[in-house]
Write the structure tokens for this entry.
Amino acid sequence: MAPLIDIRGVSKTYATGSFTVRALRDVSITVEPGEFVALVGPSGSGKSTLLHIMGFLDRPDSGEYYFAGHPTASLGEGRLAAIRSRMIGFIFQSFHLLKRTTARDNVLLPMIYTGLGTNGEKAMDCLSLVGLADRVKHKSNELSGGQCQRVAIARALVNDPLVIMADEPTGNLDAGSRHEVMSAIKSLNERGLTVVVVTHDDEVAAMTGRVVRMRDGRIVSDERNPAAAAAAAPAAAAVDLPPARLGFSPPEFMEQLKAAFKAIWSHKTRSALTVLGIFIGVGAIISLMTISEGFMTSLLSGASEDDAKKVWVTPRWQPGKPRRRFTMGEVEALRAKVPLAEKVQPMLHRDLQITVGDRRVDSTVNTHEGFELMDQVPPGGYFQNRAVAGRFFTKAENGSRARVAVINHALAKKLFDTVEAVNAEIKIKGLAFTVVGVTEDHKAEQMFGGQPTAYIPLNTAAKRVFGETRLGYLEVTAPAPDDTREARRQIIEVLREERGLREDAEDDFEVRTFEAQIEMFKNTMGKISLVVYGIAGISLLVGGIGIMNIMLVSVTERTREIGLRKALGARNSDILSQFLIEAVVLCVLGGVLGVGLGYGLAWAAYFFTKVQPALGAGTIAFAFGFSTLIGVSFGFWPAMRAAMLDPIEALRYE
Ligand code: ADP
């Protein structure tokens, strides 16, 4: 039967700055199954270093180590983690229990890293064994030092190790607790467990079966205590070293998720401040996405087939030249020569003050030629897809330059505080007009409160009000939406001919179809979105950096916990994933709250825009995906730093 521990000619040198410390010099020692060994000696003699090498927390510089008969020099990180997890139980001077965690959960911790799932009954058994059956639900801060150390002993036992390694287990305890802890350890040995304990306390050493004395990195004596016969070792069959664990088990994932929430919850304010950037960034994106989606939907649903049949002709702005407006002659030419122009509506428009008594309202005044018959726009009918109360004016009224007007809700409210304004009198440029109809505000304008607008007959405007017969724009109606492209082509041809533009001259007018209008609108929205996405992007970047920063802080704060988890069998990848999960949970929390914020903002905007925000599954998926991505990318470096920590240095970190 091979010795359990067989260390041959092991040396370890630490280089600190200018001088080196030879912590172990050519040390050889074997430990048989069932032995109870004390490593004693003055401080700095190399006891802990030897124990850490025995426990695969550290590697020797030279020499060989056979564990249960197997050479260990070439084992990789994953194998060593598996050995620590399944074969070794560590007990430390300062207990190293997880903070704010119950005795039971502390004992369950090593089971997570076996990948075999946790077993509450087993944890209970181990706690009973150290006499703590009645303290299971107590948290680490509610236990005495001796009780904490007994929880640590139960934790060391829970995976049925081959050997218990204790580093000054009584160093932080008073005399009473010291006895209680040593008795617990001794009883484990009596049950057949191999125990190696580092101590400088002779009383402790006297309880063991073998005392190995060290000085200056060497073993200076090795004495068996005849009084304490070695426990009857179980007739140990040859043991194989466990394989490296691959992948992650669901219980481990759950534990990591739990640990992440716990870490976040225990620093509520800090976590809240950290996710602020993500919260605002995602909120901005979501509000914009929901509003613009809703806006688009309402715009398209608000547009009638009438709108889709229209083509708008406007003067083109050319640098250094006055805009060239249209003449009635050009209107007549279009009416005569464009077969696809069902109607050509000339429009004049001015921004003028409209007055009633001493109220003055800056308003847009548009013109219209009126309708053939009054009943073309009956009461409750529609003008440009908007309901009209009262009536619209007629062609006859236009011909006689009647002073009649149709005003919109926005103007009516400003002039009269009500939309009930039919038959009221208004004054435009000092001329009195009778309001014959009131229209609703334009759908697109409703969002911004509506531009006050009045419509008056074209001829009245040209001859009596504006003193201007040149037309600001023309509205051409094609027989069907599909005809608008062709109508546009014909309009361009006729207008160029009318204006005698040479082949190489640019159009001095613009002709836009409804489709093109929508396109233009989308373009504008796209540009606004770009700005908002830019701001959101910066916010997310800053948020991400905040996450990285806090994760670095978290890793530093929990350095000893990381060391402990590694000592209990966590692989580098377990630590990496734990911190990555924490970063992702933080980001996703920010993202979820951000979706709430964005949706809330969109609904707040509803009161101004009257556009119902549309929150699609795609938007939500986007927010989740995006926050996860930020968590992973900004959490990776801190998580990597955590994963790469040396277990011993991490455990020693102050
Ligand atoms: P003991 O446990 O007997 O008190 P250690 O094994 O902890 O002794 O340390 C042995 C020697 O190695 C000491 O001189 C100590 O200062 C040194 N040493 C231990 N760990 C390190 C380290 N990480 N870096 C530098 N020196 C170290």
Remarks:
- The chain has three domains: 5-245, 259-300+519-652, 308-513.
- The pocket of adenosine-5'-diphosphate is lined by residues 14, 16, 21, 23, 41, 43-49 (CB under 6 Å).
- The longest helix spans residues 514-557.
- The chain has 22 helices and 22 strands.
